Inverse folding.
């Protein structure tokens, strides 16, 4: 390992050497805690059979830790070409490392059952989750450093669902690993962060034919999440069934709000709509 880039003094030294700096527009905040990095690596449970995909490696503090694991292959996706010279320098000589200079939302994983490990830009959390969890070649596990508020939304219990937490619950079991204070980043963001672990299911919790209908219903309901279902789904109409009849046949009270419904209740409603 060439440098301990989780140390702020060494990180600043390397950034100056390569005339690089965090890109605010890309949401770059570099982690300064070896403890957090080590906990992310430990949670990944990496073996010699695993391929690792890292999104937004930045200067490579996490990348160096990944290279030191038994993983057979490590791939990293970095969009910011200004930070690439640092990443090249950090990973020089690593035979099991491959980088891609591109948008992470355009990357198409070729290896199924890889492990996704990343400190992803906050503003890209939802698009990245949709892209990778819904992909044909999805990860078997994801260890993600995200905004604390987003982490708590994803790891909620029944009755507090959002469209994001339902989206994750469709594909994976989520748990909160730890909180990460804003002071542990350079530069320090305005909000605190958290590490979440997603254990991805072999198949989605809902059959593939129901997923488009599931999204249609949830997007309709959560477009006005503070309103009762009678004012969203209840006012909609399909070719062979009204929204009011759909709620009645599903056994769902029209007076509740969308965050109160479980994944199974959304699935049941989708089944009835598909059969109507």
């Amino acid at each position: 390992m060439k440098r301990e880039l989780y140390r702020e003094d060494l990180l600043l030294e390397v950034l100056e050497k390569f005339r690089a700096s965090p890109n605010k527009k890309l949401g770059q905040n570099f982690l300064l805690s070896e403890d957090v990095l080590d906990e992310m690596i430990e949670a990944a449970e990496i073996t010699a059979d695993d391929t690792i995909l890292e999104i937004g490696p930045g200067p490579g503090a996490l990348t160096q830790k990944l290279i030191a694991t038994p993983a057979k292959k490590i791939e990293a996706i970095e969009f910011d070409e200004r930070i690439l010279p640092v990443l090249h320098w950090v990973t020089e000589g690593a035979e099991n490392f491959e980088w891609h200079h591109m948008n992470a939302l355009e990357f198409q994983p070729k290896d199924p059952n890889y492990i996704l490990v990343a400190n992803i830009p906050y503003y890209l959390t939802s698009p990245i989750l949709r892209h990778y969890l819904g992909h044909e070649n999805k990860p078997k596990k994801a260890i993600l450093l995200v905004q604390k508020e987003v982490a708590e939304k994803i790891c909620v219990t029944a009755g507090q669902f959002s469209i994001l937490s339902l989206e994750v619950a469709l594909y994976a079991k989520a748990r909160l690993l730890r909180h990460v204070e804003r002071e542990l980043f350079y530069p320090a963001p305005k909000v605190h962060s958290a590490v979440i672990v997603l254990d991805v299911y072999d198949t989605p919790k809902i059959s593939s034919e129901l997923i488009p209908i599931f999204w249609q219903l949830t997007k309709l309901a959560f477009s006005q999440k503070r309103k009762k279902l009678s004012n969203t789904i209840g006012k909609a109409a399909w070719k062979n069934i009204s929204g009011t009849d759909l709620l009645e046949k599903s056994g769902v009270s029209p007076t509740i709000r969308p965050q109160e419904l479980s994944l199974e209740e959304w699935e049941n409603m989708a089944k009835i709509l598909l059969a109507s």
Strands lie at 30-31, 51-55, 73-78, 97-101, 115-119, 141-147, 172-180, 185-186, 193-200. The first helix runs from residue 8 to 17. The chain has a mean pLDDT of 94.
